[in-house]
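Lab notebook, bench 4. Still working through the backlog of constructs that have no structural model yet. Next entry is a single chain of 293 residues. Request: give me the structure tokens for it.
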Amino acid sequence: MTSTSERVPAVGSSQGPVDGSSAVATRAPAIRTPRWVERILIPMGEMGLLLGTVVWSAVRHPRGYWGDVRDQMFDVLKLCWIPMAVSTVAFGFGAPGLQGGNIYNLFGIPERLGSFFIMASVREFAPWINAMVVAGVVGAAMTADLGARRIREEIDALEVLGIDPVRALVVPRVIAVTIMTGLLDLVALSFGCLGGYIAAVPILGATSGGFLSSFFANATVTDLWGSVLKTTIFGLIIGVVCCYKGLNAQGGPIGVGRAVNQAVVISFAGIFVVNSLFTAVLLGLNPNMQVYK
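Model written out:
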């Protein structure tokens, strides 16, 4: 009589499996992706798909949504320009204005603070504050609006009627936020430099002509278009992220509030990453921008 050990081969032996069940039993377990990786990569992929859908819809049929885009742009301007003006003036006056001006004043050259504001306000602080204000005000409002439509099943009703919710709701909002964030950067630059001017001339005793001369001697067209282009990319990130979170809100009013918080935080994180990469590439391609005159 044959024993059990003689009938069933060992796992590591060279003898082949007797039947299919033995082959299944000796197969290595499948490797599972950690849940935190899935929670990061899957939404990123879906946001990329939403961005592609928005671009394809806007380019393929570039008519019928510009009236909504105009209305959304007016709402962005109405909601953002006052808090942006106050924030940029205060930030330009405090951080690069007084703090940077005191360092320049130690060397007796407070007029040279104008050159510092090319780096401080034009390249970094004004675009960053601009994006923060737009994400915190307009981005949160867009997420709440689309999230409320989702939990009231209005978006489902549009789909039943054969209306594309991305075309009707997302495309105008993304285009409006992208364009207005870039245009509002010009407002942020103006008020940010105004804050530096107030700190340098009345407070630190610099001459007005010296400050302006130092500022325009170091200002370049690359600084201006780089700042506007970078902020436009910020607006695209804000529009896509906030619309995605609004369309996928679930769980009632609490879920809408959660989606708003997540949208703003993800927008901030995306802005930080893009800002670092864009600035590094811009300065690497234009090394003359780092030389102050």
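Notes after review: Confidence is low (pLDDT under 50) at residues 1-18, 20-25. The CA atoms of residues 38 and 277 lie 24 Å apart. Flag for follow-up if needed.
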